[in-house]
């Protein structure tokens, strides 16, 4: 089983990796206490003949060349991913969360052989709390997919691709990572803004604390977080445009101890008639929107 070596702050490297995965997979809700589990995993099938056993690079589906497997297994085959996890000293807080950003289609998660959670639906992120686990444990994720089952969404996948149909993909196809959080923590952040006003909401009315906004280099603005909500108008307004994509980093600190970072932009998009002709406006000015239809397909990684 692949040995996982970690350092605080997300640095992760398994034996044989040349580059650590240090990028936070959720930039709109970041904590320092995360471990990115992308990289090499042990990989095998639970059924079928002949049996298959190899290693696979997450987050690329087994059908992709970048996964190191490069093949599609028969429909309904259980794909098994395994890693040995070592939690670094000082990482653990009150709760340990496992995030799977994409598993197609059904996933069972095991810790040291014990089932800790299940999920259905390949296009949705899911989170499972890992409770009663030691700092060293074996993590197993079993993923099954079946394009013959038309009750599940399958997009434009087909075993025999061609025309409008794409190569099928299965297994883990988005980042897998872990996070350590206190008992009370921020699960989501909703941000709404225009050219001069910002609303931030955690979705939990029990949350109190403060929001610290970096409005310019070396200058911070503090806004109270009351019932999970903060509302403010930045003293210095720099509008977002394609030529100057200005972002405002901010940090939410809960009274209970949790802390998460995110960012927002000041901009407004609307439709209006100018001389009888409909226009799209960005920050009150006509803006020509032009772009190609990007289906998001890459030959080496398929969807990533």
Structure description:
- This protein is mainly beta.
- The chain has strands at residues 4-6, 12-14, 34-36, 39-45, 53-58, 78-86, 95-100, 103-104, 106-111, 114-120, 126-129, 136-144, 171-172, 176-181, 190-193, 198-201, 209-216, 219-225, 229-232, 248-254, 259-264, 269-274, 277-282, 285-286.
- The strands form seven sheets. The chain has a six-stranded antiparallel beta sheet, with no helix packed on it. Strands 3-14-7-11 form a four-stranded antiparallel beta sheet, with no helix packed on it. The chain has a four-stranded antiparallel beta sheet with strand order 18-17-20-21, with no helix packed on it.
Write the layout of secondary structure elements.
Blueprint: E1 4-6, E2 12-14, E3 34-36, E4 39-45, E5 53-58, E6 78-86, E7 95-100, E8 103-104, E9 106-111, E10 114-120, E11 126-129, E12 136-144, E13 171-172, E14 176-181, E15 190-193, E16 198-201, E17 209-216, E18 219-225, E19 229-232, E20 248-254, E21 259-264, E22 269-274, E23 277-282, E24 285-286
Antiparallel strand pairs: 1-2, 3-14, 4-5, 4-6, 6-12, 7-11, 7-14, 8-13, 9-10, 9-12, 15-16, 16-19, 17-18, 17-20, 20-21, 22-23, 23-24
